[in-house]
Write a structure and sequence with these properties.
single chain; 4 helices; 32% helix
C-alpha cells in the first residue's frame, strides 16, 4: 500500500532521516546541493567509489567499496535542486536543432524496390 499522508512535504521530511549511498561519478552529475550540519540534515549522501585491490600481487584482484565523502542536506532544498531543470541557452538549442535538420537533409532516404513480393 503506498504511503499517504495529509502532512505537507516539509513536515513529512522533518520526521525522518534518509541515507543515500551513491557512486562518486553519479554524485558528480547532480547539481550543487546546499550543505548543512549533520545535526540539521534530513539526508546523508554517502559517496563511494570502487577500489581495486590485488591480493598477494597476482591475479585479477577484487573491487571494494571505499567511502570517499559525506554530504549532509535538508530534504526539500535538495529535492528542488535535483528536480528543477536548468535550461540552457536558446541559441545553443536552435543551433543543435538546425544541425540535426541539416544532417537529415544531406542523407537521402534508402528506398529499395521489392521485386515480385508474392
Amino acid at each position: 500500500m503506498p504511503f499517504s499522508s495529509s502532512l505537507p512535504l516539509q513536515q513529512q521530511s522533518a520526521q525522518r532521516k534518509i541515507a543515500v549511498a551513491l557512486n562518486r561519478s553519479f554524485f558528480a552529475t547532480l547539481p550543487t546541493l546546499k550543505q548543512v550540519s549533520k545535526d540539521e540534515a534530513d539526508i546523508a549522501w554517502l559517496i563511494y567509489s570502487l577500489e581495486l585491490r590485488k591480493e598477494g600481487g597476482h591475479g585479477p584482484g577484487r573491487y571494494y567499496l571505499k567511502k570517499v565523502g559525506e554530504v549532509f542536506t535538508e530534504f526539500e532544498p535538495a529535492l528542488l535542486s535535483i528536480t528543477t531543470p536548468l535550461p540552457g541557452k536558446m541559441e545553443d538549442f536552435i543551433k543543435l536543432l538546425q544541425e540535426k535538420l541539416d544532417e537529415q537533409l544531406e542523407t537521402s532516404p534508402v528506398n529499395q524496390t521489392v521485386e515480385k513480393p508474392f
